[in-house]
Amino acid sequence: MLRLPDGMRERIAKIAETAGRSMNAEIVHRLEQSLQGTAPGDAPSPTLLHWLFLRAQRIDVQTELDQLKQRPASTATDVDIGKASERLLAVRRLMGELETSPAFAQAFESAAESGREARESPRAATRKKAR
């Protein structure tokens, strides 16, 4: 038996239905995703990769929106600007949801730890050679 906070069962059921999985399969899938990339030297987690993809997409959409706003009024329509603004808000919302997830915090910390270890390894090797 698994106890879930209020409302989480419904959220999982909705996500599982959208993904075409059972609730159990969705929970197992999410657990597997959150456990990938947790050991130093592992590949980045899907959560972190997803965030990086969204960040790149946000930059692209922001650039497009800025370019549309700089065009003469005759070539950039309000509809184009509105659509780009909506896409930007959607990407920002998805990034915000991802950034508040425990999986993101874990993936981010794991990546940071791997980076620290990678930077320290050459230093340690250099110190050993100097001795």
Automatic annotation (TrEMBL):
InterPro entries: Arc_DNA-bd_dom (IPR005569), Arc_rbn_hlx_hlx (IPR013321), Ribbon_hlx_hlx (IPR010985). One of its GO terms (biological process) is regulation of DNA-templated transcription. Residues 109-131 are annotated as: Disordered. Pfam families: Arc (PF03869). Transmembrane segments: none annotated. Residues 2-36 form the Arc-like DNA binding domain. This is Arc-like DNA binding dprotein. It comes from Tahibacter aquaticus.
